[in-house]
Design goal:
alpha/beta, four-stranded mixed beta sheet, 11 strands, 451 residues, binds nicotinamide-adenine-dinucleotide, Dihydrodipicolinate Reductase, domain 2
């Protein structure tokens, strides 16, 4: 197979910018620096630890993904971002209490150098927190221009060849796409008019795309999944992806649900509850912010259990999600799932999952992979919606009218085949008949010889 396109080499420095420098972003930054120093391993990151099969099974070619496709190395990465608090990354990571203090202390010289730029913030979208490090401006367009100036300054000061942006800030209040989001023209007018339905995350995404910087949304808020932003990404030929990092409970859901569906087992109910005590949990304690999360988590099962195609198995499925703020647990989220399933002749069974996870430990490698893969997409000439990155998202963004794929195994195949496609390798269908055709032919030839 011919190589898809020339992929520009990953030379020079890659700046990774995160709006939001809280638990996830600081765990990501500290982890990359720890890996760089050889005092930690980037476990959970496909770009760093994952392998990909290339060619036939008999060829035994399974290179590391980072050796198969040209990605920036961890040594080439520099970090920046924005937050409403002005703590540097060492202070913010110490506050988040995800990583042990002795580890953070070893990284202090690097982490304390990284200081957040002042944020674009609107308390109508997040009312449970306030902070001092916030921009003021005459309009939302003025704020967008200030962000563009930050992006350009960061790039020049850090001598970066390319940048990517990954939203790691708090979940904003639930809004639906409206007239102001419908076209780039209405959106830009809305920025000039201070339209209330333009959320801060949309202002960051707009600024990124205008500067040619790929953008991924790690939270469930409406950001780059509006027509105006898709239009801008096509116009500027910039890669976008979203939304909501697939970690913890939803990760388990999209592992278990495809298995039940694969065996045509019925599901009558799926009750999911979580307790968590970090700042994310505090923000999600507000009903309008929880609603945003509920919608993004809620669609996951619909995509796997299709009640219209298989009403006898999934027609009565009752799916309920709860998130409760419980400070003593900190970042160590605990989730429970009760799944009521039924099998042969309708006999009832139950599955219980109790996942004691660490939210930011699961999210940090996703930030790294998204940043490196978005940069690869950009260097490969892929732009607009990057559906092949759905593997990382709870609510994958797709082209209008195209249903999202939630099954994590299909998402992984999509991702791997995209990498093979970019590198001009054969796509893998897992059909495998060719091995048996050869095997049987050989058998028949031997039979003829001995007859
Ligand atoms: N940890 C996970 O497993 C996981 C999974 C999926 C999604 N997420 C999402 O990732 C995001 C980050 O999670 P976290 O645990 O790091 O939360 P966090 O509260 O620790 O960090 C978020 C940071 O964003 C800052 N912030 C809020 N609004 C901002 C703005 N407009 N501009 C710049 N900064 C702003 C806050 O001050 C805070 O420091 C959340 O939206 C969360 O829902 C996390």
């Amino acid at each position: 197979m011919e190589k898809h396109k020339q992929i520009a080499p990953a030379t020079g420095k890659l700046g990774i910018l995160t709006p939001g420098m809280g638990a996830v972003a600081t765990t990501f930054i500290a982890g990359v620096i720890a890996a760089r120093k050889g005092i930690g391993q980037p476990i959970g990151s496909l770009t760093q630890m994952g392998r990909i099969r290339v060619g036939k099974r008999t060829e035994h070619r399974q290179p590391l993904i980072k050796e198969f496709v040209p990605l920036s190395t961890l040594d080439q990465v520099v970090f920046g971002g924005w937050d409403i608090f002005d703590d540097n990354v060492y202070e913010a990571a110490s506050h988040a209490k995800v990583l042990d203090q002795p580890l953070l202390d070893k990284l202090q010289p690097e982490l304390s150098q990284i200081k957040p730029m002042s944020a674009v913030f609107d308390s109508r979208y997040i009312r449970n927190i306030t902070g001092p490090n916030v921009k003021t401006g005459s309009s939302k367009m003025d704020l967008a221009e200030q962000l563009m100036a930050d992006i350009r300054n960061f790039k020049a000061q850090n001598n970066c060849e390319r940048l990517v942006m990954v939203w790691c800030a708090s979940t904003e209040a639930y809004i639906e796409s409206g007239d102001v989001h419908a076209t780039l023209a209405t959106f830009e007018q809305g920025l000039r008019d201070n339209h209330p339905d333009i959320a801060p995350s949309q202002i960051y995404a707009y600024a990124a795309l205008k500067c040619g910087v790929p953008f991924a949304n790690g939270a469930p808020n409406l950001t780059c999944d509006i027509p105006a932003m898709v239009e801008l990404s096509q116009l500027t030929k910039v890669a976008i992806g979203g939304k909501d990092f697939k970690t913890g409970q939803t990760l388990m859901k999209t592992v278990v649900a495809p298995g039940l569906n694969a065996r045509a087992l019925g599901v009558r109910g799926w009750f999911s509850t979580n307790i968590l005590g970090n700042r994310d949990g505090e923000v999600l304690d507000a009903p309008e912010n929880f609603r945003t999360k509920e919608v993004s988590k809620g669609n996951v099962l619909d995509g796997i259990f299709n009640s219209e195609l298989q009403p006898e198995l999934y027609g009565e499925l009752y799916h309920k999600i709860r998130i409760n703020y419980y400070p003593p647990h900190g970042d160590n989220k605990e989730s429970w799932d009760n799944i009521d399933i039924f099998g042969w002749l309708g006999y009832h069974m139950q599955i219980k999952i109790n996942f004691l996870c660490r939210d930011s430990i699961l999210a940090a490698p996703i930030v790294l992979d998204l940043a490196l893969f978005l940069d690869l997409a950009q260097r490969s000439g892929l732009y607009g919606i990057q559906e092949w990155l759905s593997f990382y998202f709870k609510a994958p963004q797709t082209m209008p009218g195209l249903p999202a794929e939630h099954d994590i195994f299909k998402q992984l195949s999509k991702l791997e085949n995209t990498l093979r496609y970019l590198m001009g390798e054969d796509l893998i269908t897992h059909l495998g008949q060719d091995y048996y055709e050869e095997f049987n032919e050989q058998f028949n030839a031997n039979v003829e010889v001995s007859a």
